[in-house]
Amino acid sequence: MPVTGxxxxxxxxxxxxxxxxxxxxxxRAAIAELIGTVDTDAVTTAWEGVLAVPGWPGPPVWTHGxxxxxxxxxxxxxIIGVIDFSCLGVGDPACDxxxxxxxxxxxxxxxxxxxxx
Length: 117
Prior knowledge:
The protein is an alpha+beta fold. Helices cover 33% and strands 13% of the residues. It is globular and about 45 Å long.
């Protein structure tokens, strides 16, 4: 469903599908607070790698924002419904890929990944 004509969502609801680069300053501040607790060089390297990934090239789309097992209705190993739209937003659909890690087995994730590519 096109999202044109709908109002822009306000954070925190709309914050799950925003470009990660908008999270750079607070993320770097959080990393700095962890000096001496974790390997901040490794965390910074990982964060910079994430920032290097190209953003969503398409137009904004509706996102659920919280596709975790508690928000999915499953019967006979099939998703039959999605509930709890409190994190509904507009933006990059990648935020809804969490379902692959939260619900699927390693083998099913491979099939899911192949279908996406």
